[in-house]
Amino acid sequence: MDKLEVFNTLAAGVGHGELAFPTSAQVAIKVRQALDDPECHIEAAAHLVQAEPLLAARVVAMANSVTYNRAGNPVTDVRTAVARLGFRTVRALAMALITRQLSGSPSDPALQTMAAQLWQHTAHVAALAHVIARRVTKVDGETAMFAGIVHEVGGFYLLSQAKRQPGLLDGDFDAWMEGGEMILGRAVLQVLEVPAPVQEAIEAYWDGFLAIPPHSLGDTLLLAEELCPVPSPLHRFNSRGAAPGGADMGGSGNLDMVLGEETLSGILAEAAEEVGSLTGALQF
Asked: Between 20 and 30 A from 112 (CA), which of 123, 161, 167, 174?
């Protein structure tokens, strides 16, 4: 099987409108579109969120996370949760539901396991990106979390197509890591109308070159990926024994970089509760 040819065919299909969404994701798309309207009022937004129970639960959970509830006042209703989070964060959560649903509902236990692990990986990267953005690279934290949420959209769509393409997930992942992820990822990101700055950050992630000191949205995503405790099931070791696509930092020892008067490991240790809380809130 020429896997790159298959990836190109799948990407062409996405571009021609073959990307289908489950009902819950369709509701999330409507929420995202409504929140893009500057005339959208909070009552209307809350009503739309309530129409999708999974999204409503995650919105309330996020509003009660350490990051958004530093005063310790719990939220129990969707409207208050939306008000606390703001439309940008609710929009990111809607995209999280869309991304998670892209893999469909595979009946194969192996595919179910891969989809679950891929979302665990995604949620951790998104949470880490949010913290790294605020504490290290000083880019917008909400945008960084959004980038983490969508950086594996191509992988979720790949899993949805695995049953239709027998052998696509067999063997090593050279073809995926050396072109397939970019081919399919770009196509899905464009259909989902992901903002250009986020697409550019994901392109930087695919390139794998981290600036020292890190300062950009792409650097934020690369750091989050490298520090994620849950590996992507799609980033397997290739036939040459190396995991391609990782940040080029000359070895993992360089991860504990000095940032002013602090170290990266110290910053993340301080933010461990926040990362855990955000990760939990992102679990669909």
From this structure: 174
* Cβ(239)–Cβ(177) below 8 Å: no
Residues facing 258 on adjacent strands: 263
Question: 109 preceded by cis ω (within 30°)?
Answer: no
Q: Render the burial of 52-77: b for 16+ CB within 10 Å, e for the rest.
A: bebbbbbbbbbbbbbbbbeeeeebee
Last residue of a domain, one of 54, 76, 101: 101
Of 60, 80, 101, the residue at which a domain comes to its end is: 101
The model's pTM: 0.90
- Summarised one tens digit per residue, pLDDT across range 194-206 is 999 999 999 999 9
Placement of tokens 């081919």 in the chain? 183
Name the β-bridge partners of 259. Answer: 262
pLDDT digits (tens, 9 = 90+) for 81-118: 999 999 999 999 999 999 999 998 888 899 999 999 99
- AA identity, residue 2: D
What is the H or E stretch that residue 224 is in?
helix 217-227
Residue span of the structural domain in which 130 resides: 3-16+102-281
Token pair of 146 as six digits: 């959004």
